[in-house]
Amino acid sequence: MRFLITGGAGFIGRWVVKRLIEEGHHVDVIDNLSNSSRANLAEFEGTECLKNFVVGDVCSKEAVGKLFDNNPDVCIHLAAQINVQESINNPEKSFSVNVEGTRNILEAARKNGTKVAVVSTCMVYDTGTAMTETSRLNPRSPYAESKLHAEKLALGYWKKYQLPVTILRPFNTYGPFQRSDAEGGVVSIFVKNSIRNEPINIFGSGEQTRDLLYVEDCASFILEAALSGDAVGEVINAGTGREVSINQLAEMIANGPVKHVNHPHPESEITRLVCDYSKARSLLGWQPKTSLEDGIKKLRAWMLSHS
Ligand SMILES: NC(=O)c1ccc[n+]([C@@H]2O[C@H](COP(=O)([O-])OP(=O)(O)OC[C@H]3O[C@@H](n4cnc5c(N)ncnc54)[C@H](O)[C@@H]3O)[C@@H](O)[C@H]2O)c1
What we know:
Radius of gyration: 18 Å
Strand order of the largest sheet: 3-2-1-4-5-7-12
CATH superfamily of the largest domain: NAD(P)-binding Rossmann-like Domain
Low-confidence stretches: none
Order of helices and strands: EHEEHEHHEEHEEHEEEHEEHEEHH
Helix content: 25-40%
Number of strands: 15
Bound molecules: nicotinamide-adenine-dinucleotide
């Protein structure tokens, strides 16, 4: 099959592209490299399966239209402005990329009859545990708000035009290739600091909890959902069901001092966030395979081999 992956050079995108190429599918990628690097796809460039790697913007109708001219069977839409602080500083940009960009993809898909898997986020939920897809929503940042808008837009294309779309809500994802600088994910930052024997800084009390999903499990979830006829028109969560506080995470990873620092955006923090993934299990037969302990080990080994 032919796949178009937006944001394919990003952290999760790179793992989705890897799986597709290993399975012999043909892949086109569009990514403007605003939060990633060409190096993330270097091992696949020049291979028979990576057909086009376009450095371009999903907000450009022209760039998106050209890729849809290749008649992809499925588009996996990952490209987004993902940084919460940046979305607070510049909400217009988040809405432009995350909503307008999604609209461009949906419109091109509609003209072409391409199935679209829209990768949304658990950040659309209100605080809580065992969140099902019908749990209360309460986006607390322009990032989360814009992702929810993109979901609604996509479901509108399903209802109005029967465009086959699926909405995916992975919980916080971590693993190799995630950024570990200030813009990165919490697990990557903690592991990098522990490797360098640098202090680990926790935003706020550290009692906030997360459900941490290893990136290869996230990539299989995305692919299984994107290929499933039963998932069309559905919203589906993916996580592990395990609740870990940031303090506990720091304890698992740290080998130096742990400090509590002021939270840069407490109003956007979700206190508890834990996934109920029973819908993914019953609809797709998907479940996570990697424990948090094993995922951290894999990430540490990867960082050590890349430092
Ligand atoms: N990482 C997580 O914990 C997590 C959890 C749930 C959902 N998600 C969602 O998964 C998707 C991928 O997230 P990620 O963590 O891999 O982030 P990422 O930033 O690594 O990937 C996003 C990619 O999109 C690209 N991009 C940004 N703006 C673009 C634009 N205008 N045009 C083209 N490309 C653009 C970036 O350069 C980047 O490569 C996002 O939609 C995000 O909302 C991520």
